[in-house]
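Board notes (copied after class):
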Amino acid sequence: MTSTSTATERTGSGLGLLVVLMPAILATVTASDMVNLMLPTIGSEFGASEAELAWVVTGFLLMLSVGIPLYGRISDRVSLRRLFAFALLTYAVGSLICAISPSLAALVAGRIVTGIGAAAIPVLSIIAVTTLLPPERRGVGIGVVSAGAGVGTAAGPALGGGIGEALGWPALFWIMLVVSLLLLFPALRVLPDETPQGSGRLDLAGGMLLGLGAGLVLFGMTRAQVSGFTDPLSWGSLVVAIAALVLFGVRTIRVDQPFVPPSLFTNRVYRTGILVAFLAMVVNLGGLVFVPLLLVEVNELTPGKGALVMIPAGVVTALLSPWIGRLAGRVNTRVLVLSGLGLIGLFSLFLSSFTGGSSVVFAGVGVLGLSIGFMLVMTTIIGAAASELPPEQVGVGLGILQGAQFLGAGTGPAVFGVLVSARQQGGRDAINPLYSGHHGSAYSDVFLAMAALVVLTLIVASRMRPAVGSGAEAGPRTEAAPAQEVNNVQ
């Protein structure tokens, strides 16, 4: 049995671990939307419609929504080293398929394979940080890993657009192929190969129902971005998704060893954190998608230049991440989450009020505020979940939590996209009286809707009161739990 301290010594006091995990999650998140600005070029090359092109993004995201909870659960039976190596190799194979794709069908297939590998990276990275680093370093570790996700989300469109325009869209996948192979050997060195002793059988049927429900929710939402919610594929997918999730809930109650233990949701901090993470991601991704669109439509920037506004937010959040992680380990969970949500709401209102002029500075400031607030919320929630949950539930719990994030990422742009279309067709002035722009009133209304959603999220988060003496309130644990025992829950 390998203790946390022993594992940490092998990773160079955690530095070697973070050197591998941060670029891995950065590459994964960057890959999710790096092709967005190149879709028109890909469509012209392959003669594809907008609906067909959507599968380049949807196929990847579907694998993330299905795979993240599954990897969290499987990690109680397979070592972190082997799972991570499988993920990086699968990611590399998918990137190679994409880079040499002779048709759109081959490109979509490559993106699906890439998504199968990419789904493992976020959840395994958080599991590795929470089980291999000592308690006093976990907050910083979670902050650093979360920074990789934040930078990737903010910089993905800009990097994809710039590199794609300069070298062609296949270059994006050649770069990801090289990155994944370069990370493989360091990952084999720093991650432990001890095989956890998973208890009981794995509820594959329950996992498949959960994956089907999550995948169809995301598919329905992303389909709505193209065709609206009245499209049969959009609402039909959502109906089937609800049915699958209901069956999953029924099975969870009835079987002896369900895929997700019902006791997981008896913890108020955790179950509230899932809903807060979902709603916060809806708002965050909505801002990261619609700010560049506003700059293109209202400020008449090119897509590549519009995406550049996102880069300062990524840089600043990366620099602040260790401090935010350290703060999350010392300050009351509820206070930090409410503070982060307050920032998100404030800057959503700021975007709604002041992005109608010719300057792009207001848009950049708004995105920066959203990013800092979101990192404060998510770093705190992840750290609280890892501390609050019993060891036998940490892995599956973190998988469900991150799955909720990615569902929020798919839901936000779809819902707000429908709102933008409706407001543009209406042609009315912005609801916000502070908005003085002559164009872009639909975007002002979207950002105002985001602020309203944050108010609802604040009400939900106000219930996030950890039990007396819990890890989230009492600070880092003084005794490190064995890495092997923690892995057994995942």
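Comment from the instructor: The chain has two domains: 4-202+259-487, 203-258. Confidence is low (pLDDT under 50) at residues 1-13, 467-490.
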